[in-house]
Design goal:
Blueprint: H1 2-36, H2 45-55, H3 63-74, H4 76-81, H5 83-95, H6 108-116, H7 119-128, H8 144-158
């Protein structure tokens, strides 16, 4: 019988412990609800503006304009004066090989109809692109004068 009593005592103690743990969990849950529910803070318009000002980016990075501005400020007159140099730097890849249908330098048959359109049209096509040719031949760092000088050089070789 004594072993029977110890089993009953164990079940009684175990039940009391489970009950105490459940009661403790309920108390913690109620306290968490009371502490966790705080009234919503309404922000004023001034506070919203202050937050937006704090998280606003410090600056902006604009590479195309920066590269173009630096290139134009460093060597615009040298590029403009040297159409052959600009051709060799930027235009030779296509106009030296005929890639993508570009008229080859010195090919009078290919350049004849183009030259007949006039220098202004050729300059416009070179600056803004035409068919497979991108604007400025893909070299946004070139000044307009440098591109025009390269066109003039190619035209002089195609006459």
């Amino acid at each position: 019988m004594s072993s029977n009593m110890s089993d009953n005592d164990f079940v009684k103690n175990f039940s009391l412990m489970i009950g105490a743990l459940i009661a403790l969990a309920v108390v913690i849950f109620i306290l968490a609800q009371i502490i966790g529910t705080k009234p919503a803070v309404t922000a004023s318009v001034d506070q919203d503006k202050a937050v937006v000002a704090r998280i606003e980016p410090v600056g902006q990075l604009v590479l195309a304009k920066a590269v173009s501005a630096v290139a134009n400020s460093v060597v615009p007159s040298a590029q403009a004066a040297d159409g052959q140099g600009t051709y060799q730097q930027a235009c030779f890849a296509c106009h030296g090989t005929g890639a993508a249908g570009a008229p080859k330098l010195g090919d009078k048959a290919a350049w004849g109809p183009r030259i007949a359109q006039g220098t202004a049209t050729l300059h416009n096509h070179a600056l803004h692109g035409i068919r497979a040719m991108p604007a400025k031949g893909g070299r946004a760092d070139l000044s307009d004068d440098a591109v025009k000088a390269a066109v003039d050089y190619m035209v002089s070789q195609g006459k």
